[in-house]
Amino acid sequence: MKFSKPQTLLQIATLLGVDYVGAETFQVLGINEIHVVEIGDIVFVDHPKYYDKALNSAATTILINKEVTCPKGKSLLISDDPFRDFNKITKHFNPFIASKVSISESAVIGEGTVIQPNVFIGNNVSIGKNCIIHPNVTIYDNCVIGNNVTIHANTVLGADAFYYKNRPEGFDKLISGGRVVLKDHVDLGASCTIDKGVTGDTTIGKGTKIDNQVHVGHDTIIGEKCLIASQTGIAGCVIIEDEVTIWGQVGTNSGITIGKGAIILGQTGVTKSVIGGKSYFGTPISESREKLKELAEIKRFLKDRKKS
Fold it and tell me: Which partner from 31, 49, 226, 255 sits 20 to 30 angstroms from 202, CA to CA?
């Protein structure tokens, strides 16, 4: 999530009420999670296991709960609760603004696009040309939709990420400030749910077609010309490369990559990253031919055991 204009380290430290290490005028351009940080971003870290990863990341400002040596060319924000203060930054620079109408006046809708009855379109949404948005679709703030996109009834774009910190008093939500981006010629079936990124974008690539009742988690990137069948659940921070086919009732772990041209057969649990150009099946996942051989061997073993 980029700020509308650059901030200084002093301005952010003052907002949070925390100490800092670095020049007061050190430039801060936005906030991001560790896997998508860029130069100018703030990243937060609140566990010793991830200190080195955050300090050595592309982020140039680290919001951290320990006084450490500041890497050259970077700055630190010293907080007793980086999770809380990261949320404070999101709220300040991307506050929730309640809608008063079904289609926001700030939404931009392209020529030839059809909006069916009972559609909700939030603030700062952009929809391209020649799209069809069917009844009861909900499009949260800041979503970006390309040209020639079809979205079927009851689909929701831009709900919050499923991301919580377990505290003694209950689960504390990390506030989502990202977007959903659909490229040109994407089709979404009925009752799909596409969560927005925590700080970045959940993206569905050009020409990808998604069946009914598919869930896509926060910050996931789906490539071009993919086919995803119904009742598939894709976790957050997954990368699905171009021309992947995923059949029905597949589930994935978070943070994995599915390589270009891979085929994931129905009811597979994608528990790890897999390379492209192959067919996969089962839980835990393996190449479909190998899995079928394993099943045949088990069947043969049981048959022989029964005879003996």
Answer: 49
Residues 242 and 180 occupy one common structural domain: yes
Alpha helix (H) ranges present in 80-213? 82-93
Other CB atoms within a 10 A radius of the CB of residue 241 amount to 19
The mean pLDDT value for 223-237 works out to: 98
Q: Which residues form the domain of 19? A: 2-93
Q: Is residue 116 located within the same domain as residue 264?
A: yes
Question: What residues have CB less than 8 Å from 277, skipping those under 6 apart?
Answer: 259, 260, 261, 262
Q: Identify the burial level of 232 via C-beta atoms within 10 angstroms of its C-beta, where 0-12 means exposed, 13-18 middle and 19 or more buried.
A: buried
Q: Is residue 295, in this structure, part of any structural domain at all?
A: no
31, 68: one domain: yes
Catalytic residue among 134, 185, 215, 218: 218
Handedness of CA 105, 109, 112, 117 (dihedral sign): negative
9, 25 contact by CB (below 8 A): yes
Cα distances (Å, whole numbers) of residue 187 to 113, 122, 269: 14, 20, 24
> Phi and psi for 125 in degrees, rounded to 5?
-80, 145
Average pLDDT, the chain: 96
Which pTM value belongs to this model?
0.93
Choosing from 38, 59, 93, the residue where a domain stops is 93
Q: Write the pLDDT tens digit of every residue in 138-196.
A: 999 999 999 999 999 999 999 999 999 999 999 999 999 999 999 999 999 999 999 99
43: enclosing H helix or E strand = strand 41-45
In degrees and rounded to multiples of 5, residue 217 shows phi and psi of -80, 175
Q: Identify whether 209 is part of a domain.
A: yes
* Residues 84 and 169 occupy one common structural domain: no
Catalytic: 35? Answer: no
